[in-house]
Design brief:
The protein is mostly beta strands. 3% of the residues lie in helices and 49% in strands. It starts with a helix and ends with a strand. It contains 1 helix and 9 strands; from the N terminus they run αβββββββββ. The radius of gyration is 15 Å and the shape is globular. Bound molecules: manganese (II) ion (MN). Manganese (II) ion binds next to strand 2.
Length: 149
């Protein structure tokens, strides 16, 4: 796991975002959803896995009703510290705009393969079974974020 891509995109002298480092896996992993008023409003869904936050940008927000399917575009891994980040990324910087924490909590992984991640979320807004699925016919970065039963 590496944060090179994350760090290369950002100027930490200008952005309040954490520079971060890869940390050891914790026993109870967390997730976070950040609402991000960037050029296009979206929600960033992040799962703690292998010492980093695996991250997806979800244009329409996470699925909240059983059967909902949302496009989730995988983006670069973020440092674990990013889970508590909120604030404003300055104009001219990567991802410029306000970031607010929309939901957070623990995640319990049930299955992890290269194109399917099944998990339970224990947030305030997101609770219960979810999955991230990468259909073979989709472009590499495009996943589906699904609310399970
Ligand atoms: Mn974002």
């Amino acid at each position: 796991m590496t944060l090179k891509q994350y760090q290369k995109k950002r100027d930490f002298k200008k952005s309040p975002e954490p520079k971060g480092r890869v940390l050891k896996k914790k026993k109870s992993p967390n997730f976070v959803v950040q609402k991000h008023w960037a050029r296009n409003l979206h929600y960033d869904f992040r799962l703690e896995l292998d010492g980093v936050l695996k991250s997806w940008a979800v244009p329409k927000g996470p699925p909240q009703k059983v059967g909902d399917k949302r496009l989730a575009i995988q983006v670069e891994d973020h440092p674990l510290e990013y889970a508590s980040f909120h604030g404003t990324i300055p104009e001219g910087q990567y991802g410029a705009g306000r970031v607010a924490i929309w939901d957070k909590g623990q995640v319990k992984f049930k299955r992890i393969t290269k194109d399917l991640i099944e998990f339970d979320l224990f947030g305030k807004k997101l609770k219960g079974k979810f999955a991230l699925l990468h259909p073979a016919k989709f472009e590499k970065k495009n996943w589906l974020f699904i609310k399970g039963t």
